[in-house]
Design goal:
about 240 residues; alpha/beta; Ribulose 1,5 Bisphosphate Carboxylase/Oxygenase; Rossmann fold; 2 domains; four-stranded antiparallel beta sheet; 9 helices; 9 strands
Length: about 240
């Protein structure tokens, strides 16, 4: 059995494991038990009814959190010429083409999100084995392959609170919804936006109930079970 810290055990004692919490109540409890010295991330965990072995049931998409993630995001843009200038003006942290590709092949990965213009996708294809397993590869499905004209919007979204969600092999989805220091209203609104986007991303191949259970947890804290029906009944204002 995993040895838990006194802080974790104290937090766990404040959670009723038999109870499914109203979203607002769960958020307030998560904030209360986040007592580490750093600002913990609050994450949403969803168990889906998708079969991860079926390609037509993979859940993947993006959501733009209205109150951001609370994290500074370093953005790399693969671009050249005028597109590189546009990316620089839009606030990209790193910009380049062949030189950046070589640096990544040599082990450089000092960025959180990468965006590319379509003309460079053939060049960066060889980075798939490096970036793919880390979730850093530009992909049209997640809005990270865009035209030069769309670069300002894409960069702004990524830096402002854009999160990607993707189902894992166990049919679970894990998504950050903000920091424990956020006020409860901001976390609730971020939570509802994420769930709304995930529900709308339901694959056509999924039969029966799509979302089976939901919970919240902070970086170092125990899980708090959400009342799924109550959560799904709330709407983004």
């Amino acid at each position: 059995m995993t040895n838990r810290s006194k802080r974790y055990l104290e937090a766990a004692r404040q959670i009723d494991k038999e109870k499914s919490y109203d979203p607002q109540e769960a958020i307030e409890l998560a904030k209360k038990i986040a007592t580490t010295k750093f600002d913990e991330t609050v994450e949403l965990h969803l168990f889906t009814g998708s079969d991860s072995r079926q390609s037509d049931q993979v859940v993947r998409g993006v959501a733009v959190l209205p109150h951001g993630t609370g994290k500074a995001v370093r953005v790399l843009v693969f671009a050249q010429g005028e597109a590189a200038h546009i990316a620089q003006e839009a606030g990209a942290d790193h910009i380049g083409d062949d030189g950046v590709i070589q640096r990544i092949e040599q082990g450089w990965l000092e960025f959180d999100v990468s965006i590319a213009t379509p003309d460079l996708m053939s060049k960066i294809g060889r980075l798939g084995r490096i970036l793919g397993r880390r979730g850093l590869m530009p992909n049209p499905k997640t809005g990270t392959v865009v035209t030069p004209e769309d670069l300002p919007r894409a960069i702004k979204e990524v830096k402002g609170g854009r999160v990607e969600f993707r189902m894992d092999r166990t049919a679970l989805i894990h998504v950050p919804i903000g920091k424990a220091s956020f006020d409860s209203k901001a976390l609730l609104e971020n939570l509802l936006v994420v769930i709304d986007n995930i529900v709308r991303s339901k694959p056509s191949g999924v039969k029966g109930q799509f979302l089976r259970s939901a919970s919240l947890a902070t970086t170092m804290g125990p899980s708090i079970k959400l009342d799924l029906s109550r959560t799904l009944s709330l709407k983004v204002e």
